[in-house]
Amino acid sequence: MNAQSLSYFDAYEGFTPKPHETVEKEFNRLANIRGWIAGTKKYHQEHRRCLYSEFDTHVGMIVVDDNLNSWQSLCLEVGVSTIPGSITQCKKALKKVHVNLVDLIDSRRRGLEVKSFPSYQALRTYTIEQNKFFPKARAKRDGVLKILLKEIF
Question: 101 and 147 in contact (C-beta within 8 Å)?
Answer without folding.
Answer: no
